[in-house]
Design goal:
This protein is an alpha+beta fold. The protein has 9 helices and 17 strands. Helix content is about 25%, strand content about 30%.
Length: about 350
């Protein structure tokens, strides 16, 4: 393997050969100094769960079209004792897509996102959660979350805005640092990061408002995992990876597993100061329905082993995003712990997952 590559893994953390080959290719790019494969590494247009450091050049295609995609965690201001799962599910089932709910942009700038307050398809979701276990009470208190309070986790990004930026700056040869094109991309990229974060907040507010408590929503964490930053003279490209230098990190698994709130270690240089963004896909989307159609029916596919419920009007997407399609998130977290990169602060569990 290329000496520029670092793999954060263990014997239980399966990585497909195609993803490793993609990481090798990135490590061979002109200007590449280092490439890191995190435990959730899997193949995509470029590998997901990867970090690439470069000098003198940056590569927009490593970030992709959904610039700023990430996870936003919110406290809902609702005691868990007042949550009625069936009533929430019934109410949410009336919404085919978040775009059906109107929204007013509360920000003074004109929004570049035409579908502001929506999450899109694929693996994007909004999930109501409850804290299952607390290992570091002080860390939870530091972000304003109480154990007996309903949480809301939102996974989405900059929507069509990121796609426009990506299309305008797509150049597989990279953009030389200091040039006009690189400066223009970095400026647009920064705007996309801002609006992706705002989009998560408004999507959360919209869905919470539909259930009657939007005004009580409080942001707790926001972790982008598709972005670029300049650090110590290098460009750090993160694709499906979060920064380990901005406090607690949200690491969800699938709709059928716990989410992990991780406290990064003091020294995360080994992983280019990055942590995993999720469990990582195990199966291609095209394989999911055929592999699972004998296991589930139309009702059971909407429930999980943790007794959580799923609201989604797209049956194909239900199968594509089934828990079995993802790697074991406990093994991903274990690999990060074994490499002394993070510790578990708390574990929220899913109550209701909304997709649409």
């Amino acid at each position: 393997m290329n000496q520029k590559i670092t793999l954060i893994s263990n014997e239980k953390c399966w990585m497909e050969q195609s993803a490793l080959a993609q990481l090798e290719a990135l490590a061979s790019l002109p200007g590449a100094v280092r490439a890191v494969g995190l435990p959730d590494l899997h193949a995509g247009r470029t590998p997901v769960g990867a970090v690439v450091e470069t000098e003198g050049i940056l590569y927009p295609h490593l970030i992709g079209n959904d610039i700023g995609c990430g996870m936003g965690l919110f406290a809902c201001g609702v005691p868990l004792r007042k949550v009625r799962q069936e009533r929430f599910v019934s109410r949410l089932s009336h919404i085919r897509a978040l775009g059906d709910l109107p929204i007013e942009n509360p920000f003074p700038e004109e929004s570049p996102i035409s579908d502001l307050g929506t999450i899109g398809g694929g693996n994007h979701f909004i999930e109501f959660q409850a804290v299952e276990e607390v290992r570091m009470p002080g860390e939870l208190e530091s972000i304003g979350i109480g154990r007996g309070e309903l949480l809301l986790l939102v996974h989405c990004g900059s929507r069509g805005y990121g796609q426009r930026i990506f299309s305008g700056f797509l150049d597989y040869g990279g953009l030389p640092a200091g040039g006009g094109r690189a400066a223009a991309y970095l400026a647009a990229h920064g705007d996309a990061l801002l609006w992706a974060k705002r989009n998560r907040f408004l999507a959360a507010q919209k869905l919470a408002g539909w259930l009657g408590f939007g005004s009580a929503l409080r942001p707790a964490l926001d972790c982008a995992h598709n972005f670029l930053e300049e650090q110590d003279g290098r460009f750090v490209h993160r694709k499906g990876a979060v920064s380990a230098e901005r406090g607690l990190v949200v690491l969800p698994g699938s709709r059928g597993s716990l989410t992990y709130l991780l406290k990064p270690a003091a020294d995360t240089a080994l992983s280019a100061h990055s942590l995993s963004h999720g469990a990582g896909r195990k199966w291609a989307r095209s394989l999911c329905r055929s592999r699972l159609r004998n296991k589930y029916d139309r009702d059971s596919i909407r429930e999980t082993a943790l007794k959580s419920r799923v609201v989604c009007h797209d049956t194909g997407l239900l199968y594509q995003e089934a828990p079995e399609a993802y790697k074991n998130v406990e093994q991903v977290v274990a690999a990060l712990e074994e490499h002394r990169l993070a510790e578990v602060a708390a574990t929220p569990r899913p109550l209701i997952t909304y997709k649409g």
